[in-house]
Design a protein that fits this description.
InterPro entries: NAD(P)-bd_dom_sf, SDR_fam
CATH superfamily: NAD(P)-binding Rossmann-like Domain
Radius of gyration: 19 Å
Number of strands: 8
Distance between the termini: 33 Å
CATH topology: Rossmann fold
Oligomer: single chain
Keywords: Oxidoreductase
CATH architecture: 3-Layer(aba) Sandwich
Protein name: NAD(P)-binding protein
GO molecular function: oxidoreductase activity
Organism: Athelia psychrophila
Strand content: 5-15%
Helix content: 40-55%
Order of helices and strands: HHEHEHEHEHHEHEHHEEH
Shape: globular
Length: 320
């Protein structure tokens, strides 16, 4: 993957991986004007066999798709209406999708809600949409992913768009909806929980701090200052680390198509590459120390993953 960098764009990475993309069917959720999803579709459009765009607003989505087809007339794009916050909408959309799916990109997310709110199914809006909605969708599309793998030549991939915010997240197993302790709700706490929960081959990714997306607009300048991401005058701290939408799209495409990462199934990506593991490794003693700590951490994470999987199944009434 040495040809990619933290400054590579989605279009550049897609051109480099065009032989991997050719003929593949890709489904991506959450595509709207000026979004990362739109940029990913634009980058894949010249090469993919079929792109299924699953988003809530048909008019806005079709407008976005029409603009991409105007740029790439050969693009084969299908629009499916899907509201990731509604289990009824997810089930209806899944019935419309009959094609094999080589790559599923779980990208949709709701804006951070200032006030505690629920989906129509009674889930906290961010946990219910950003996590549970995609769990249900992935479970319903598992036959499509298996169909794509039937020939034995392709390993289907599920790409979950997470966020660096997951580092500060915790799963509230006893109160995932903030129903018992509503005063503990804060939009960033809810968002971090939903992104920590995201994680055939499966990869999760952090696209970077992106300027200009609808999701970014839900974080105020004051909150950026509060969390040390902006200076008191409103300018960004470390401005070179912020990304444009075209650059942010690159990590999606690496996760979806780069062949060299298949041996790292389950990994987390950032800056168009596998995120490096942290360890100082100064001497052999420290290596053994960190290896022991790592194995202990793996056991903890496996337990958390199993508990979250069971909780998700219970809340959705499924057995994934």
């Amino acid at each position: 993957m040495s040809q990619y960098s933290s400054k590579s764009t989605g279009v550049e990475v897609a051109a480099a991986l065009k032989e991997e993309i050719k003929g593949k069917n890709v489904l991506i959720t959450g595509v709207s004007p000026s979004s990362l999803g739109e940029e990913v579709v634009r980058a894949l459009a010249p090469y993919a066999g079929l792109i299924i765009v699953a988003s809530r607003n048909r008019v806005r989505t079709q407008t976005t798709v029409d603009a991409i087809i105007n740029q790439t007339p050969s693009a084969n794009i299908k629009v499916v209406v899907l509201d990731i916050s509604s289990t009824a909408s997810i089930r209806a959309a899944a019935k419309e999708i009959t094609e094999p799916i080589h790559v599923l990109i779980n990208n949709a997310a709701v804006p951070m809600a200032v006030e505690l709110s629920q989906t129509e199914d009674g889930f906290e809006s961010q946990f219910g949409s950003n996590h549970l909605g995609h769990v249900l969708l992935t479970s319903l599309l598992l036959p499509n992913l298996k169909q794509a793998a039937a020939g034995g030549e392709v390993v289907p991939r599920v790409v979950n768009v997470s966020s660096i915010a997951h580092y500060s997240g915790t799963i509230r197993f006893d109160d995932p909806y903030f129903a018992l302790r509503p005063t503990e709700y804060h939009k960033l706490v809810g968002y971090a929980q939903s992104k920590l929960a995201n994680g055939l081959a499966s990869f999760s990714l952090h696209p970077g701090g992106i300027v200009g997306t609808p999701m970014g607009a839900s974080v105020s300048k004051q909150e950026l200052i509060q969390y040390g991401l902006a200076n008191p005058d409103g300018t960004y701290v470390n401005p070179d680390e912020w990304k444009t939408i075209p650059v942010g799209a690159s990590t999606y495409i690496v996760a979806a198509f780069e062949p060299s990462i298949l041996e790292h199934n389950g990994s987390y990506l950032a800056d168009a590459a596998l995120a490096p593991a942290s360890s100082d490794g100064k001497d052999q003693a420290s290596v053994f120390f960190y290896a022991a700590k790592f194995l202990s951490l793996i056991r903890i994470l496996q337990d958390l993953a199993e508990r979250l999987w069971a909780l998700s199944d219970k809340l959705l009434g499924i057995k994934f």
